[in-house]
Batch of 2 targets.
Target 1
Amino acid sequence: MSPLGPRPPRAHASVDNLRTYLLDGADTTPHRPAVIQAAPGGGLETVTYEELTARTDRCAEALDALGLDVGDRVVIESDTSADALATLLACATLGLPFVPVAPGLPDERLHAIIAGAEPALYLQAEDGTRTGIPEPVGTGRFGPGGPALERAPAPRGPRRRRVVTPVDTAYIIFTSGTTGRPKGVVMSHRGVVSFLRGVRASGFLTAEDRVAGTAPLQFDFALFDIGFALSHGAALVPVPRDRLSWPRRFLAFLREAGVTQVDAVPSLWRPALRHEPEALAALGESGAVRGVLFSGEAFPPGELRALQKLLPKARFINLYGPTEVMAISVTELPNPLPPEAERLSIGTAVPGAEVTLIGTDGRVVDGSGTVGEIHVRSTSLFSGYWNDPETTRTALVPDPLDPASGRMVLKTGDLASVGPDGCLYFHGRADSQVQIRGNRVELAEVEVRFAAFPGVTGAVAMVLAQDDDEPRLHVFVTRTADGPAPDAKEITAFVRAGLPAYMVPHHLHLVDAFPLTPNGKVDGTALRALASS
């Protein structure tokens, strides 16, 4: 029995809850693999749906004993694994929003997330090395037997009757924010389950599939992989992080684990295309890999065609959408891609969602070829940005087609047009948000970090494409006129201490002043020319 009274009811199977939806396979096919992962001593370890449910229940029982209430946040630092999944699902069982972060996140960044989320508990995997978690946050480690408490969370007092509802928060994903602070995207159980039901209706997976997940756990693409696999009764195959940078090891792991579907950002395929085309072709000839799903950044059509040539039997699926709605569309592309295709279709919205394009005049964009901003109406909309009502109001806006209804829609900031085929085609961002290797980056946050370095008076960040189409993050900084020039290595070390690796620029340029256009704005064209000189 918990300190606050009788054990709280578990997530009820008759209502939308992440735990009950994803572990439905434990009732129908308990002995089917749920997770196939690298074993500590080598080889593979298989965790069935029955065992994953048992681990989830052990973890939920231990968390329940701490007396945490519905809504108390739990930070989980780990790579994707069966034990991490059990911990996430245990939190969902008890209505504890989980905040996933990846190992290696800079301390300063993690502490900023902790300061913002005010979690009751921080958990890391058994082999985690993180120290210095501030009080009064409780700490512990988790493994197959559940969590082991190291420091008890501070008493928080009861606030709810501890009944978990579909509108309660399932998780909070912290992404790059324009203010220099991480921005927390709050997703409810109903929102996540609603989206996953829509994806399931598309029929891209079967229970026989083995889905390779490649994204870090703090990236919403990783949560999609988890939901995509488990909601179909399929097996999730987390690819070890140390295999991703080595294409030969990456492809060998796919073969060893019998992977049939690979979910990855497009940039992950680039090294394999360059250095291991024969190994890729072998996967294609055997027909082992039947599906490739990508998201997070644009797939250059030339590289996509090259991959399709090596995997001619595979289905290619373009997942599009922001964290605030998990995703909007899941679109199968033709294999091979037609030679005249210059942009990849993002199709239409998943069942249960609808997209409207709104022009700069506030009116609906009608006809093909005209660009408008994507607005989404769906039950899978996020609840808001954590503790940031002002920013929430800029994203969740009254439905422009029916403002009197009180219904809110997501104003994405993404631009698109409708093609002659009736499908949507992406045209980039309306603001300064970009994608770096599949990770969402607010250029303003990068600029704020650089500007905080002593002696730096301003910073401008931009993404420039290289000859190989790999996007590179460039930052230009100015300095005080009467002071010494800041050391580039010291600036980079300062930035690296506060931002995740994907937000650290590839190139740093020290300039005396920013070139300006006639209307006084920073001249991006001139900066691009400077970067290429």
Target 2
Amino acid sequence: MSVIQTIRDRGTWIIFVIIAVALIAFILQDGAGRGGSAFSNSSVIAKVNGTSIERGAFEERLKSQEAMYAGQGATRDQLIGTVYNMEVDNIVLNQEFEKLGLTVSAKELNDILFGENSPLRQEFTDPKTGEFKVDDAKRAFAQIKKSKNAEQIKMINSGYIEPTIQNSLRNKYQNLLIQSVYVPKWMVEKQQADNNAVASASYVYYPYVAIADSSVKVTEADINNYVKKHSNEFKKEEETRSIAYVTFSAAPTSADSAATLAQINDLKAEFAATSDAAAFLGKVGTELAYYNSYFGGSRIQVTNKDSITRLPVGGLFGPYVDGNNYVLAKMVGIKQWPDSVTVRHILIGTNDPQSGQQVRDDSTGKKLVDSIQTAIKNGADFNTLVAKYSDDGGSKEKGGVYDYFPQGQMVIPFNDFAFDNPVGSKGVVKTDFGYHYIEVLGQKNRAPAYKIAYLAKPILSSNETMNEANTAAASFASGAKGTKEFNDNASKLAKPILSATEIKQNDFTVGTLANTRSLVRWIYENKEGAVSDPTEVGDQIIVAMITNINKAGLMGANEARPLVEGLIRNDKKAKIIIDTKMKGSSLEEIAKSSGTSVLRADSLSFGSGFINGVGNEPKIVGAVFNKAIQGKSSDLIAGNSGVFAVKGETIAAKPADALPETVKQALIQNRKMATYRSVEALRKAATVKDYRFSFY
């Protein structure tokens, strides 16, 4: 069965029990504790305004997220940062909730759990109608109150109850912020006037590009002075580091590929001759697991599908390359199967494969299912027997029915009985869950279905390939003990020097290199100029050198240079232009002295700050609306793209594009949207001490 189907088949009733007990515990306490830990471990991952994030509790959250997102390919390393941010956000928010006296009562929690937006909808929704079966959920809560499984209760608390409470508190907090938004009448009038204001002007423009960059030097002192003057824009919350590195390929060579091809060809005759594909693949190993049943052509998604499905029974196709494997495909069998089936069944459970616990012994289960089969043959009511005996919570409330499920969704014995037998067939089937009494009720769309075995061998780098790459990298590293030697060695080998910047202490990736936590740790355990030993990253070996250590606080000149060098250069160019290029008291005199001409701009909008043919120049457009320069030339103004002298000519108001109420609602909406950054503001204002580097 599929993962979701499997969980439903064998454990839905357990889920109901756990949720029920968790809710009951909450109601009895008349509240929910936000904090604490089941672990006695006192190691601290971080402190947020004095509140600790304990490692035990953090690991618990991390495992929960791993389980939740495993199907999406998320790794533990990727989730550590996500869980950390969630924990910090929860703490700063909960501290605000406490200050404001925000709580969630037992009645509120009850209303949410059984309301329209219930987190339980997936478990208690009728798949046929989409209806949330509130009464079923309430009955499950009312009937089962004695679970002793503390671990599962804790899981449901963290997966359902606590998130529900937290979301409710966040909604209350957000609504408080939203309801506080107010826009006074004068602000609406001012905004509307600004939106509708237009002007025209004449101007003289001397662009910065007319001064060669090479004639203007931006020193380290210039950058440091600029950063200090604009300190709020260049504050760093945490240290970052930069590296330069070279790579040595350890990817499989053509010889390695040929060796894998020879290996699979050596197995080809035996694979063709075997009558037991499962046993053969188990003996020799394969990268593509053997599915010992059938799939219709529409459900097969593999390379060379058309060629494979045309094979006769016993025929082989390949070897061919699929991803990083050489593959041989063998047609084991072909049948005419429906693409979907409806059945009803009664499960007499013997084992819970998920927990490994025995529900009942095998002989008892077999006797019970045989007696059920006999009772049905003698006319007993199927629905009554389902309600009384079935251990499948996923279908029990629907008379044991699974309605038109596709091939491969159920475990193989169940799947094969349903698809391999005609409508009306009845029988007992044993699976890992126990014994099923099954009746086939309906089938649709018969077509060829195929059982295919894949012998797949990965194309791997040989020891020789790995040794060659490691030897070359080690030789490079031994002779590169400083920046000059590093650069010289790279030049001799014609190796491009790559770089990675903004590496933080708790990162798990470096630039485009994945799975490099060990490299990040090395970067933060060594000094600037240190050169690493050869490090294996994927199919390459890298040697890295630490090039910059950028401490927290104000950016240093090296780090800030790419951000501000152009701005400082333009400031210096502006001074040169003002001092030497643009002279005179009128636009005509200024244009003559600078070798330019007087230009004109119409319909300048106060709200946009844009000049056609020039670009975004809010300072210049703002000056045009200054009544003090109407009819006369302004002083020289350094803009974004050059130096300007402007003469205002007209200021007017165009017909209003929007009614005052529309303008007001737009202002309100903008301010409401800003409230969604409240967590970011709280976090920025918090005192956070991060100790993750000691653990990960």
